[in-house]
Amino acid sequence: MVRPPQRCPAGHPLAGGDRVLVGHQPCGCGGHTSWQCLACDAVTFGPSLDADCTVLAGPAAVRTI
Ligand SMILES: [Zn+2]
Ligand SMILES: [Zn+2]
Predict the structure, then answer these.
(1) Can you count the helices (H) and strands (E) in the chain?
(2) How many domains does the chain have?
(3) Proximal ligand: closest to the CA of 9
(4) What is the pTM of this model?
(5) Per-residue model confidence as pLDDT tens digits over 13-55
(6) Which residues of 1-14 are buried (b: 16+ CB within 10 A; e: fewer)?
(7) Of 46, 47, 43, the residue nearest 63 (C-alpha)
(8) 62 Cα distance to chain centroid
(9) Taking a C-beta distance cutoff of 8 angstroms, is the pair 54, 43 a contact?
(10) Domain hosting residue 20, numbered range
């Protein structure tokens, strides 16, 4: 279980449940949880993407659960 970020890269608060879209991206390393800020569409991945990761960052890659 990955802890959700408190804020997006732009500083918008993500806590509260209705300010973020949570998804999961399969990856060569196993997978990443993704959090998309609804204020600015910035996506944060956890664990952070590594150089070898195959996830495509972007809103189109994020799926709501
Ligand atoms: Zn934001
Ligand atoms: Zn990865």
Answers:
(1) 0, 3
(2) 1
(3) 1
(4) 0.74
(5) 988 768 999 999 999 999 999 999 999 999 999 999 988 898 8
(6) eeeebeebeeeeeb
(7) 43
(8) 8
(9) no
(10) 1-47
